[in-house]
Amino acid sequence: MISTTVRLVNLNIARTSVVPRAFAAQGSTRSMAALGDKFNMKEKVEEDRYIRAREAQLREAKAKSAAAESKAKELETKSAELLATKTAAMNEVAALLATTGDVVSEAGLANLADWKH
User: Which sequence ranges form a coiled-coil region, renumbered to this chain (predicted)?
Assistant: First the structure.
């Protein structure tokens, strides 16, 4: 009777100590896989966030470059217009002075054209 009781107690101890460990070990591998999946999902989210940020930086750089190019073209056009206006004014002053027989240097004509406009 004592040996039967001892066996039953030992069997209950074995069940309570061994069986939960086996289930816990099984569950832990599942949770590790789940943790791996969650980590992979988070990693994917971080990669996507980085890619979107990088694409935004590239779009901003491209927009700035396009704006700088258009500004340079605009300044070039404006500069050509100003040069054409100044040349026309210099030619007009030179023609006026030629009718009276006066002569003025190029620098003087440039100054008169600047003064006129």
Answer: 51-92
